[in-house]
Amino acid sequence: MSAKASWGYAPEQLEAWRPSLAVTRSQIQRQPVFVAEVARRIVGFYSLRVTADGCELDNCWIVPGQMRRGYGRALLAHAIDSARARGAAAIRIDADPNAEPFYLACGAVTVGRLHAPIPGLPSRCRPQMRLPL
Question: How many DSSP H helices and E strands does the chain contain?
Fold first, then answer.
């Protein structure tokens, strides 16, 4: 939640998103989830949703105080290796608009946009991205 909050979303919006952003024990048991640690402290994590037609980056979050230190790229590189090991040709990403520049810099391409308005941002869209492996 703190990573999502770092992009300036209103507290009410963050609370509305809380259920969809929560990672449950069940999700951890049925899909790959990996953390990045520094000095035995978690600085970020990602999870992959593995389906019959490939892999989707379900989560990729870095603790705000640890952003821009290469941890996101390291996690994404690990996700690429993990998806390749599962036979995927690409990773699908339903990105937050604020994360699009990061994914583009890592080699992803924007293949569409999903209209996702929120109060105060009626034209907000989530980039639908593909990261070729």
Answer: 5, 6
